[in-house]
Amino acid sequence: MRSGSRRRSLEMGLAFCCLVLATVPVLSRQPEAFAVTLYTRFEQPVPDAILSTIKSELALALRPGGLHVEWQPLPGPPGAAVANEFAVISFTGRCDVDDLVPGASRPGDLGWTYVSDGVVTRFGVVDCDRIRGFIQSALISVPPLSRPAVFGRAAAHVAAHEAYHILAQTQHHAGCGAGKAAYTVRQLLSPGFGFDQTELRAIRDGCAYPRGEPANDEK
User: Fold this and answer.
1) What is the pLDDT of residues 44-91, one digit of tens each?
2) HSE-up of 114 (CA within 13 Å, CB side)?
3) Collapsing DSSP states into helix, strand and coil, what is residue 174?
4) Fewer Cβ neighbours under 10 Å: the N or C end of the chain?
5) Residue 167 in contact with residue 206, Cβ under 8 Å?
6) Residues spanned by the domain of 49
7) Is residue 217 part of a domain?
8) Radius of gyration of the chain (CA)
9) Element (H, E) at 92
10) What is this structure's pTM?
11) Which of 187, 202, 167 is nearest to 27 (CA)?
12) Three-state SS for 197?
């Protein structure tokens, strides 16, 4: 990250304001489908059950906008071509549900996206340690066999938020939906929490906008 860079972060919500309905509003007409490649890097090994949930939940969030997610781990094979439209998400810390302890939520950003010279970069971070700290009291009340899926859903929602900044090429947050500035534990764990119609349209518009200069939202 260059010295002129900064980051747009996702914070923990303290009040439940608006929860997106389980069925995301459809666009006025069926959008043309196109692919987005998501390059991922995990700082530590992640259980298969959690990884599969992250993939399925993020794909579910983007599908109403006509976006198909193609996953590529980093580092990839030597000489592999870079996709035209992509995002790079690094998952730091422990993305697992072992050694949970009850306690108060730990403050801090759950994820962030890097901005350089006013332009949103392709790079975002999901902090699994902070997600664990934020939701661990709720996770303890979940049956052990269900915890990986619940944690994976939470991590996917944070990843979706960072993908929103990257693909929509915006530093701005939405008012309600996965693109909003802060989440509550209830929202983060909800299977129906996703993008609304406005956010999906912003993602599609951002994918169509040439990169290399700020878009029209004063990035």
Assistant:
1) 999 999 999 999 999 998 888 888 889 998 876 555 556 667 899 999
2) 15
3) strand
4) N
5) yes
6) 5-20+29-208
7) no
8) 17
9) strand 86-92
10) 0.80
11) 202
12) helix
Structurally, how many domains does the chain consist of?
Answer: 1
* Per-residue DSSP letter, 180: B
Please report the DSSP string for the chain in residue order: --TTEEEEEEEEPSS------SSPPPPSSPPPPEEEEEEEEESS---HHHHHHHHHHHHHHHGGGTEEEEEEESS--TTPPPPSSEEEEEEES--S--S----PPPPS-SEEEEEETTEEEEEEEEEHHHHHHHHHHHHHTS-GGGHHHHHHHHHHHHHHHHHHHHHHT-SPPBSSSTTBSEE-HHHHH-TT----HHHHHHHHHHHHSPSSS--TTT-
Domain assignment of residue 215, yes or no: no
What is the token pair recorded at 1?
A: 């990250």
Angle between helices 48-62 and 147-168 (to 10 degrees): 40
- 3-class secondary-structure state, position 7: strand
